[in-house]
Each structure stands twice: as C-alpha cells, then as structure tokens.
Design a protein that fits this description.
This protein has 399 residues and is of the alpha+beta class. It has eleven helices and nine strands. It is 49% helix and 15% strand. The relative contact order is 0.11.
Length: 399
C-alpha cells in the first residue's frame, strides 16, 4: 500500500522549498529566460543561497554530511522548486543524482575525495556525460553491438587512462567541477559490457568545453559539447575501481526528471485556472464556459494521474524494488503530460498565450525539451515492450 501522506519533516521541507523558490527563483526566472549569454548570466548567487539551506546537497548520504533523504522527499522538494522555474530547479537538483551515483558506486577513496569536496563548496556542481553525436538513447537499444553506441575511448597508459572523443548535450557540464564520463574501455564488447565510467575534474589536461548548446526552453539546464584530446585521467578516478559497468544508474535521474515535469505542469494548470477566472467573455469569466471548463478538467485529470504515477515510482524505489518498466512508463507519461497540459493552457489563454510577456509560452518551450531527456519516448516504449515480453516468458505478465 502506497502512503500518499507527507511526514511532518516533508511538510517542513515543502514549505522551506516553496518559500525559497518564491523569494529567490521567481524574481529572476523571466530575466534568465531572456538571457543572451548563459554562462555570464548563470545565477551563482541563487545557487549559493540554495546551498546554504542544504538544497544543493540533498543527494548526499548522511555519512558525508547530507540529509540522506528518500526519493519521495526528493519529489516533494523538486515540485516546489520547479513550480517557480524548472531551469533554476535543475541547477539545484542536477547534482543530487551525481552525488547519489558516486555514493552508491564509488570506492571509499573516491567518495571521501569527491563527495567531501562537493559538500564543502557552495559552487560545486556535478554532471554526467554519456550522450555523443552518434550515440544517444539508442546506446543500449536496439544496437547493443561492438560497432555501435559510445565511441569515446579510454585506453590504459600506466597510471592514467587517455580519453579521446566527444560528448554533447551534457547537462550542466559547462559549469560543473566534476563530470562522470562514460567511455569505451573494450571495443570488442557491446556498450552494455565494454563501457566504464570515469570521474573527470574540469581542470583535467586534454579536457575542454567545446561549445555551449542553447535550447528553445529549459535554457539554464546549461548543456555543452565536450572534447577529450588525450585527456589524462588517473586510474584511481575509474568509478568503482574496475573496468566495466559500475552498476545500474538507478531511478534517480528519472525521478528527478518526472518531478520537474509535474512541477511545471502544476504551474501551467494554475496559470490557466487563474487566467480563466479573470478573463471575461460574454459577460462572465471564461472558466464558466463549458469548453474551457472541460479543458481545465482534462488538464487536472492528467496532472493527478502523472503525480500519482510519480509517487508510486518513488515509493517503489524507496522500498528497493526494481521495476524498470514502471520507471520508463512514468518518464514517458509525465514528460508527455507536462507538454499536453502546457499546450492546453496556451489554448485557454487564447491569443494571449503566444505573447512573450505571458508565462504560458515559457511552460510550453520548457516542456518541449523534457521528452528528449533520459531516453527518447520511442526508445523508452521499446524497452517497456521488452520487459513485458520477458515477463510473459516468465509467466508473470502484469503481476
């Protein structure tokens, strides 16, 4: 049985996150969205204030000075941050998944070295680099063969690995101090077996940010293209201490993404409801018009379905249950729901919806980006199909 009630601690964190977002994020969100220089305008002051409240280090375990929150608490906090602006929310939460991964897959020496540095520096951000110009969500499926997938290579040379190749669409890499890079250490094996992960500090010789990639929305989830030209990474930075997959990355990334999506969707619905109550047509607010009321009702239904699915996914993860199909299904549904709700909100606003000064056009642009993160929708559904097929063979079906 899934418990949807919040604990007293979660309620206090919810209020803290809400107050912070209204005070520090909402006043700067529109200006940031209009920025002509993402690096120059990056909101470091906002991040430092979030860090002082412990928001930047939510993903740290208690033994490294973090709160050790469960995934449901992640959802509660992200929902409030993303409600005001998902770009600023992403700046704060991107490092949660990176810290969580290092804590679960790193060696003791790696955790002591990198998690402590991350904890003690209010401007320390983490990033993860997997995607390449010719290797995206299809890295794992359906092309898991030696000649496909990730091509950035890592060759052992004494006490170092030499990394060569390029990554792109890498979230927060241009502003991160540490990037977890997936590289091919054995080209005779398919990507699922022949890749390893490396902890690469930003000042590593041979590693540079090649370009800043600006998106139509979700813009301060600053993405970049990364070049590795004989980048020398010490052997002790091999995540987990041995070649090969360090283990599954787990649900953290998809939980973060889905929570961002639902926070945005809730904001879009609230904006539509408020506008429909203020906009007068035919002598009465348009919220009283049946067509508009039906649109709002459908938006509400979709939002509640997505939030319930997200809470179930987080609860399942907190209980240590591995349901990969549920992770994929929740990601697909929540990101599509965010776009659907935002587009319907734009319809409610009518001609005003496409005006730059109105909030709804930003919700649409931000939501458009979400579906392209953490696997494409098509790849996610193919993977779900494979899981269902395997369950059929095991005689489990939907159980």
């Amino acid at each position: 049985m899934i418990d949807f009630d919040l604990t007293d601690e979660q309620k206090a964190l919810q209020k803290m996150a809400r107050d912070f977002a209204e005070r520090e994020i909402r006043p700067i969100a529109e200006k940031l969205d209009r920025s002509q220089n993402l690096l120059q305008d990056f909101p470091w002051d906002m991040l430092k204030k979030a860090s002082k409240l412990g928001l930047r280090t939510v993903g740290l375990p208690k033994e490294y000075g973090g709160p050790g929150f469960d995934f449901r608490t992640w959802v509660v906090i992200i929902d409030e941050l993303a409600y005001c602006d998902i770009s600023c929310s992403k700046i704060i939460t991107q490092s949660w998944r990176g810290a969580h991964r290092i804590a679960h897959q790193g060696t003791k020496e790696q955790k002591d070295r990198f998690l402590s540095a991350f904890r003690d520096d209010d401007t320390y951000l983490l990033s993860g680099a997997r995607t390449e110009p010719n290797a995206g969500s299809d890295t794992h499926l359906p092309y898991d063969v030696p000649e496909a997938g990730i091509m950035l290579t890592a060759k052992r040379e004494g006490n170092y690995y030499a990394l060569n190749g390029r990554k792109h669409f890498i979230s927060m890499a241009p502003v991160a101090k540490l990037v977890t890079v997936t590289a091919r250490t054995d080209k005779t094996l398919p990507p699922s077996k022949g890749c390893s992960a490396f902890l690469v500090p930003k000042d590593t010789p041979g590693f540079r940010i090649a370009s800043i990639q600006d998106k139509v929305g979700y813009r301060f989830d600053v993405q970049g293209e990364l070049d590795f030209d004989n980048a020398k990474v010490p052997v002790e930075n091999l995540l987990g201490g041995k070649e090969g997959p360090a283990g599954p990355e787990g649900p953290a990334g998809r939980i973060e993404l889905c929570a961002q999506s639902m926070g945005l969707a809730r904001a879009a619905l609230d904006a539509a409801i408020k506008y429909a109550n203020e906009r007068i047509q035919g002598g009465r607010p348009i919220i009283q018009h049946q067509a508009v009321a039906m649109m709002l009702a459908e938006m509400y239904q979709t939002l509640q379905a997505g939030r319930s699915l997200l809470w179930r996914m987080a609860s399942t993860a907190d209980m240590g249950q591995d349901d990969h199909a549920l992770l994929l299904a929740t990601k697909s549904f929540c990101t599509e729901a965010a776009l659907k709700i935002s587009l319907t909100a734009m319809e409610v606003f009518g001609g005003s919806g496409v005006m730059r000064e109105m909030p709804v056009q930003k919700y649409v642009r931000d939501a458009m980006v979400l579906q392209h993160l953490e696997d494409t929708q098509q790849i996610s559904r193919i993977k779900i199909g494979q899981v269902l097929e395997s369950r059929l063979k095991e005689g489990r079906l939907s159980r």
